[in-house]
Design brief:
Elements (H helix, E strand, L loop, with lengths): L1 E5 L10 H16 L4 E6 L14 E5 L5 H15 L4 E4 L12 E4 L10 H5 L5 H20 L2 E4 L2 H11 L7 E3 L14 H11 L5 E4 L9 H15 L4 E4 L4 H11 L8 E3 L8 H7 L2 E4 L8 H8 L4 E4 L4 H5 L4 E3 L4 H13 L1 H15 L4 H18 L11
Helix pairs in contact: 1-14, 7-8, 7-12, 10-13
Length: 393
């Protein structure tokens, strides 16, 4: 069987969660699955060394214009040209008129929900609004046609099932994400100093992935950090990624605490390979989102020995288990109280770190890839005609 894998964005320099999932799937399939052939379709970009071809896997750098044109026109043409029996689209969307049977990884359907987050997103950029409109058109069509629909948590599976009325639809499955082997506690002093210097990290800090997406709850988390400082007089700082100074100033003006700016370190984009060292040095990792389909950084931080505070909403309790301190992300005071609890109680902190190591070890990319391989096999079996001969390509 020849399996096509859409991994359009994995060669881009600044990668995000879905890119990581696609890369890890590809790497694991290269290791564990030799009988099948794979063709990975990507857009050409600068970080082309992130994966390499192997005997069972060909990489096709496919030009084709903007994202929708690439996906709706160039991708299905290329998949047919390369003789793919199945096409696995890994990033929420895919070609709606593909002649090749599709498997879709549908990470989330936040853009289809009528919620507070949808209202908050009205201030998104034109590019972000177009992306949401595109997904709103594509995803419902794909859900009707796909052979298998994969999502990443039981929570998200239920959301998809409810939204599309798929109560008895066996096509919908959950496959958990994993934690890379590179995520482990870093103790090498030279490496610790190098990363501190590279990103301007202070000696002691809380770590938070802040950005402008409303679901990340950056304003609420900043308010919570401000209250923590007021309650404790602690001299700790907050390290935030992927945020610029002008955006921070505007947000602090809105939250009413402009003095907080001096306590915040902005790193810009952090290379994925540097994250373990940043996790390893933080006094606390804050993952206080309002809505997530999985929450991979929760496990990454745990694997590096960081105590984690996360939210009691959506998938986050499912992923964190009992190893994180769970709090209400809609309440800055409750988030601040959680920070105080962890910092003032060494025994609780030690227990969180110990349980975090154990929890992270339960999620692996190898297990994810093995389950995906089973799903590929199921899809192939279902594509056979009654006389057991494969359908024509």
């Amino acid at each position: 069987m020849k399996i096509g894998i859409e991994a359009q964005r994995i060669f881009r320099k600044k990668k995000h969660g879905m890119d990581t999932v696609a890369i890890e799937l590809i790497r694991q399939l290269q290791k564990i699955d030799q009988p099948h052939e794979y063709v990975v379709f990507v857009q050409p970009d600068e970080d082309h060394d992130v994966i390499s071809e192997t005997a069972n896997m060909k990489i096709v750098a496919l030009k084709g214009g903007p994202y929708p044109i690439w996906e709706q026109i160039s991708l299905p043409i290329a998949a047919k040209k390369h003789g793919c029996d199945i096409l696995h689209c890994t990033g929420n969307t895919g070609p709606v008129n593909s002649k090749i049977p599709l498997i879709l990884t549908l990470h989330d359907i936040i853009y289809l929900e009528r919620s507070v987050l949808s209202i908050m997103r009205s201030s998104n950029s034109a590019y972000q609004k177009f992306g949401n409109l595109y997904r709103k058109w594509v995803v419902p069509e794909l859900v009707k046609k796909c052979r298998k629909i994969i999502t990443v948590s039981a929570f998200e599976k239920q959301r998809i099932r409810d939204h599309f009325r798929m109560e008895n639809d066996s096509r919908l499955m959950t496959v958990y994400n994993g934690v890379g082997e590179n995520f482990k506690r870093v103790s090498d002093h030279g490496e610790l100093r190098r990363i501190r210097k590279k990103y301007g990290l202070p000696d002691r800090y809380f770590f938070f992935f802040g950005n402008m997406d409303p679901k990340k709850n950056t304003p609420g988390t900043l308010q919570a950090f401000s209250r923590y400082l007021q309650q404790t007089k602690d001299d700790v700082k907050l390290v935030m990624t992927d945020f610029n100074r002008s955006e921070l100033k505007k947000m602090l003006q809105c939250t009413g605490d402009t003095r907080l700016e001096d306590r915040i370190i902005l790193t810009g984009y952090v290379d994925h390979k540097d994250l373990p060292t940043i996790y390893s040095q933080c006094a606390l990792f804050l993952y206080t989102s309002l809505r997530e389909s999985f929450g991979l950084p929760i496990l990454e931080a745990m694997a590096c020995g960081a105590p984690v505070i996360t939210s009691d909403t959506s998938s986050m309790p499912e992923v964190a288990g009992s190893a994180a301190l769970i709090t209400d992300p809609f309440s800055p005071q409750k988030m601040a109280d959680a920070m105080v609890l962890v910092q003032k109680n060494p025994a609780i902190r030690r227990q969180m770190i110990t349980e975090g190591y154990h929890r992270a070890s339960a999620f692996s990319w190898a297990t994810m890839a093995e389950k995906m391989l089973e799903i590929y096999g199921q899809a192939a079996s279902e594509l056979k005609q009654p006389d057991n001969t494969p359908i024509h390509r």
